Amino acid sequence: MEHCSLTSTTFDSTSLASFCLSLPLHPSAIDDRLHHLVHAVVLVIIFFFVSVEDLCIEGMKTCYLLDFLGPKGFALELYMRTTSKVIGFDHRKSVLSQISPREDSDINISFYVNIEKSSSTAAYEYFSAKLSETRCDNGDKMSLLNQADRERVEMILKYIEDGDLQKWSLPDIRPFNIGLREWRSKLNCITNSCMYQQLMEICSMDLIMKGSTYLSHRQIDASKLLHKVFRVRLGRGFYGECLGVRADANSDFSDEMGMELSRRSAAAGLRPIGAVIYMQRNNLKMCLRTVDSSTDTSEVAKAYGGGGSPNSSSFIIRMDEYNQWLSTQSPPTRCPSHRN
C-alpha cells in the first residue's frame, strides 16, 4: 500500500462528495491512466474522529488529508511516527493558525490552504496535474477524466465551491445543495461499495431538479401555515413595516414562510421582508427573510444583537420590545391564500 487518502464524515458532506468525485480512490473506478498515478491499491478511511494512532499504517508512504489538517502538530506527529509524506488540503482561514512553524517548513509536509478556492477544487486540480505529468503511448498528456465527464464533474465542483466559500452566487445554488444532501448516507465506501460509480454518474442539473422539487413542496406546505398575518413595525418603525406571523409550532418552516411573506409584503406596498416569530428555548426569536436582492435584513438583526446575511437574518428580541413592534395602524389581518 503506497497511498492513504483520508477524509472525515464530521465535515460538510458536500466536501466529501466532491473529493470522491475528484480523486481516483477505488480500484474498480480507475483505468490504466490512473494506475500511472497511484501505482497501488488506495485505501480510503472514513472516520468520525481521527487520531495519529489510527493512521499508523505499515507501508504507507503518502497520506492525503482532505478538508482536514488536524490540530496543531497533527501532521508533524504523523510524519515522525510513520515517515510518510503528508499532504493536506483545506480552504478555511481558521486552519492557518493551527499550522505550526515546523510543519510549515518541513519538506515532507505540504499544506494547500487557499481561502479563495475550495478544498475539493484544490484536490481535483492537484491530482489532475499529477496525472498530466505522465504521457500516453502516443505522447499525449494523460487526463484524469474524459472530456464529457470533465465538464460535468467540474460544473459540480463549481457549485460545491460556491457553497463552501459561502458566495451563493451561482444560479440554483440552494436547490443544488439540497439535492446533494441525499448523498450524506451514501458517502461511505465500506457500506456502499458502489459509491464511486454512483458519484461519477450524477450531474448538477439532476441535483438542482431534485432540490427544486423538494423546495416547491416545502413552499406549498409553508403557505398553508400562513393563517393570521399581521404588520410588524421593524425597529418600532425605524426600518419600515413588513408582514409577520407567529410560528411557535412550525419553526422548521421559518425560511419558506419568511420568503412567502416577503413576496406578500412587497405586493402590499410594504418593505419586501417577511418576519417569522417563535419561541426558542424560552426566548422569542425573530427571523427575517427577503427575496429582494437590494434589501438587507441583517441591518435590523445586527442592530438588536443578531446577525446573518442580507437575505436571511435572525435575532432574539425581548417580549416588551416585540410588543412595541406590532403595528397599531391595523389589527391582525387574514392574508389571502397564495396560489402557485
CATH topology of the largest domain: inorganic pyrophosphatase (n-terminal core)
Poorly predicted sequence stretches spanning 5 or more consecutive residues: 5-19, 22-48, 330-340
> What's the SSE pattern?
EHHEEHEHEHHHHHEEHEEHEEHE
Mean pLDDT: 82
The proportion of strand residues reads 15-25%
Overall helicity = 25-40%
Which features does this protein show?
340 residues, alpha/beta, inorganic pyrophosphatase (n-terminal core), Diaminopimelate Epimerase, Chain A, domain 1, seven-stranded mixed β-sheet, 12 helices, 12 strands, elongated, disordered C terminus
Write structural notes for this entry.
The chain is an alpha/beta fold and 340 residues long. It is built from twelve helices and twelve strands. The chain has a seven-stranded mixed β-sheet with strand order 10-11-9-8-7-6-12. Strands 2-1-3-4-5 form a five-stranded parallel β-sheet, sandwiched between helices. Strand 7 (241-246), helix 10 and strand 8 form a beta-alpha-beta unit. Helix 1 (13-22) packs antiparallel against helix 6 (147-164).
